[in-house]
Amino acid sequence: MTLRIAEIFGPTIQGEGALIGEPTVFVRAGGCDYRCHWCDSLHAVDSSHRHEWRPMEAREIWAEVRRLSAGQPLTVSLSGGNPAIQDFAPLIALGRAGGYRFACETQGSIAQPWFGDLAMLVLSPKPPSSGQVVDWDAFDRCLSAAEGAGRRVLKIVIFDQADLDWAREVAARYPDLPLYLQPGNPETDPETPVEPQALADRLLWLVENTVGRGWLKPHILPQLHVLIWGNRRGV
Ligand SMILES: C[S@@+](CC[C@H](N)C(=O)[O-])C[C@H]1O[C@@H](n2cnc3c(N)ncnc32)[C@H](O)[C@@H]1O
Ligand SMILES: Nc1nc2[nH]cc(C(=O)O)c2c(=O)[nH]1
Ligand code: SF4
Ligand SMILES: [Mg+2]
After folding, report:
1. Which residues are involved in binding [4Fe-4S] cluster (predicted)?
2. Angle between helices 58-68 and 89-97 (to 10 degrees)
């Protein structure tokens, strides 16, 4: 069985959420069941890029991860696209036997048995600004499938007040899950430079409208990789 892989890159640092700053190799799966208006990874979503997605066996991916990390066990982050469309169990088994640990980023629309083998499942339900509608039954199935995982966290992208109000409802629905918020990045063209002050302004708005208004639950973080490299791919 081959997997459709848009890119494998690293080691870099995890730029988002609970594992921010951690040395990581990314395996980006091709294909997504969502079409978020502001997706920053369309090269792994839009079928116009399909020809760039490489069919790879789990052992080929594993060899590339080991090559990039020079055989030093680290965290491998499965992202995409939606990695939950595909079967990553064989890759996770190979990697774990070698001492590597696995994290996965998914929107929570498709559950997989291999969620239970992860050290970290990042569930990132999509707010109103994305134009997508969350199927909460499917989302709950993802949470259940990951009961054996090391950690499960929520990470929500915030563009505006409506997203923030929505995130607050989601937080109330899942009081036991740690919550990470990150400002949405409206500029996703890899060639367009990112303005650091604009990133800081969006972060300030988010802090003022959460912690600054007495909502003390969420962790507020920037996309660290965007701060460092802008919208470049493969970093
Ligand atoms: C590209 S997605 C791939 C994994 C999965 N499809 C998902 O959405 O969780 C990885 C992360 O990037 C976030 N993201 C995508 N576009 C973004 C943007 N323009 N600004 C901020 N975060 C973004 C997603 O919400 C998700 O948390
Ligand atoms: N450095 C870095 N951190 C990330 N965190 C989540 C990413 C993703 O696109 O899934 C990502 C990414 O593409 N690069
Ligand atoms: S779910 Fe993730 S990969 Fe899919 S379109 Fe939305 S942000 Fe992009
Ligand atoms: Mg990204």
Report:
1. 32, 36, 39
2. 40
The pTM for the full model equals 0.98
Flag whether 235 is in a domain. Answer: no
Give yes or no for residue 182 CB within 6 A of ligand 2: no
Which residue has the least CA distance to atom 8 on ligand 3? Answer: 39
Whether 107 lines ligand 3, by a CB cut-off of 6 Å, is yes
Q: What tokens were used for 147? A: 């009961």
The domain that holds 157 is classified in CATH as: 3.20.20.70
Q: Could you give the ipTM of this predicted complex? A: 0.99
Q: What is the pLDDT of residues 34-56, one digit of tens each?
A: 999 999 999 999 999 999 999 99
The count of domains in the chain is: 1
Q: Environment class of residue 183 by beta-carbon count within 10 Å: exposed (0-12), middle (13-18) or buried (19+)?
A: buried
pLDDT in tens, 149-200: 999 999 999 999 999 999 999 999 999 999 999 999 999 899 988 999 999 9
